[in-house]
Amino acid sequence: MLRRIALLLKKKLVNVAGSKPDLLSIPDDVSFAAIDGTPVTAGGYVFSEFGINSRKNSILGISQCRSSVIKIQIKEEPNKANTLEQEAQFLAELNAADCISAPRLLSTGSLAPSEVPFASFGLERKQESERYSYIIMQYIPSASTVSIADVLLAIVEQQKLGYFHGDIKPNNVRFDPEQKICILIDYDQSQRLTQEQRDMTPHEFLLWAMGQTFRDSSSKVKIDALHDERKRNAYFNGNAFRIDSTTLYKEQMTTNSESGVYHSFATPDVFADGSRILGTREQWLKKIAVTPDEKVLDVGCNGGVVSFYMHDRGASVTGIDVDQCIVTAAQILANIFNKNVSFSALNLDDAETLPEYDTVLLFSVIHHTEKLERNCSLLATRCNRILIECRLVEKGKGPRGKHWKDTSEWNFESIEDLQKGLENLFAPHKVVRTFGPGDKGRFLFELIKD
Asked: Which of 144, 295, 386, 402 has the fewest CB atoms within 10 Å of its CB?
């Protein structure tokens, strides 16, 4: 009976993670058009298409190379919490924290009235002695909809970095279809959070944020689905945000399992129903010395479970994976967990060289590459120590488009034969310690350069 209940519970969790998401329509509230006369040059960019916001307090323009957007403040707005200069400061701080869900601030400055396209919007030009402040930001071509889960991920990431956007509504969200992430725009209502607010669980923080109001008593979170308790709870496991409900997790392809999620998370802040936890690997790794600031490369890092563990041991960790979606998710998780870990997308089969590291981690991954011998030889030349988790028999598969393709395999009859095989692959490294077997017959081998 207990086994049946467990299976039903797991099926329910998978169904929630894989269900069709609630989509939020993103309105096109500013219409851009080419202006008559000379384009505006500012911050090294040239702008020739402009629009004006609904309150007519800011003129917005898109650069000719369509990489940046300028926001020119033409009059003060008393209901805004921040000036344009303060808004720029919030963006600069979020950028410095490597926030994924905020646009990049590119430049700030001011323009003379003759440089501002007032006439295009039927506005009267002011005296030439006045200056108009502007900020230039990354331009984000947006999809027409975004999932509620992706909006929540942006809110949670920024909360854990110490900020609340302060005006969460459809007009202030964008969805980057290439990066598969929601980006929040317009930080004129933003605020810095206290440590107590940062320490709230994501669900607690969302309830707090929805309770914050403007002067007209309207909520600072204007997304109806989040005010619906039943719909809202679908994105949480208790108080922890279900990151496996996001587009990043739905689009990533890193494990050929039923849920499609490899690393599990069950922290107070984040939940993901995956195939693997740190588990027995933590008991093995505790017996292995890690020196302060030891340079570690985690190959096939996935969501970062092992990378975060090694960071907590004092190592300087870089994680790589073939899938850009899971790499982006891992970087956001690093921000949520306050872990100084760097992640990037790299297919080892395509790498001609690598930086030097003290230790390379290969946890159930190397057989999922096609150029097995070449990759092992490359890694052996770039580090002094290798920690590899594997089994006597491995048959790898790797994602190719939306399908899985056979990669590399081996078949050893004994642990001694496997050790010799690894020493041949990673020469001149030698096996100095072996741990296991662990789950599913996996062993962990520590190899040191001879």
From this structure: 402
